[in-house]
Write a structure and sequence with these properties.
The chain is built from 11 helices and 15 strands. By secondary structure, the protein is an alpha/beta fold. The strands form 4 sheets. Strands 6-5-4-7-10-14-15 form a 7-stranded mixed beta sheet, sandwiched between helices. The chain has a 3-stranded antiparallel beta sheet with strand order 1-2-3, covered by helices on one side. A hairpin with a 4-residue loop joins strand 1 and strand 2. Helix 2 packs antiparallel against helix 3, helix 3 runs antiparallel to helix 4 and helix 4 packs across helix 5. The radius of gyration is 20 Å and the shape is globular.
Length: 354
Amino acid sequence: MAEWTASQGGVWWDGEGLALIEQTLLPAEYRVVRPRKLNEVADAIYRLAVRGAPAIGIAAAYGLVVALDDAAPSSESDARRLLHEAAETLRRTRPTAVNLAWAVERVLTEAVVHEHGSVASLRASVFGAAEEIAREDRELCRRIGLAGVEALQSARHILTHCNAGALATGGYGTATAPLYLLHERGEAVTVLADETRPLLQGSRLTAWELKRAGIPVRVTADGASGALMSRGLVDAVIVGADRIAENGDTANKIGTFNLALAAAYLGIPFYVAAPFSTFDPKTPDGAHIPIEERPPEEVLSFAGRRVAPEGVTSLNLAFDVTPHELVTAFLTDQGVLRPPYRDAIAALSRQGVS
């Protein structure tokens, strides 16, 4: 198996081009793929070869560079038109995760608004903006980890859902960042990872990366989490986020709302870990967050084999929304945010953090 560490993240530019871990193959096979065309980047994002809000934001930012390199436009005006078309293609791949649209818009704003005089100069600006997004994400992950260490205090039995780990970012992850930092400090941490149906990101991905890091991890069925909490086996729940509304309502992988309800009932802290770029002040509340619906086959089949009767279909929502009232605190690169969330989020927005 090729060397990989959590600090590397799930997507990077390797000197020759965009590189990402083909996450649909894990844990059976570790493979790094290098998309060299825009449609290959878009396909990798859509089919979850690269996934997690920060990681797909980085992939989309670099995807604009890939689009330029592949098309090789002959003039700056052609390059600008190509970038806007490529941006629209990338935005359509995953509508719920705000980081994707945020990253694409940031690259366009920073790189395209100025006259460059040549395609090469424009390309250098686009690449520089994408590199900065990736660099910042690595630093954000560590700062989220520090916020998590502060919030967790004596909590050492942690339940998490889906994969908000290193594979989902450009660094240590969001929900897993505190776990990596605690582990590096020699603190004993045990993780319960929800399997996360239907695509098993918890059992396939979170368990894979934590095991490689030497962090004790056990996989549990999604439906078992409430029982585990009621038995005193969980000190805290930490999840990631794909979009956080102005009032703190949070969209995350389907099943997150269930965990928040159980945690609230049992008095267990429920934390959401995310960079401030995941906060969307343009979305007033969870009712306005677009929820992606994925193909029914993901639910009706398992490991390529149909497990539901023929003629039965499914409603396959990729995300749900957890009301802000159920969130104990947000663990962010700007520290720990506590209620009232609308005020806390607005204060950071006014500071220009986002």
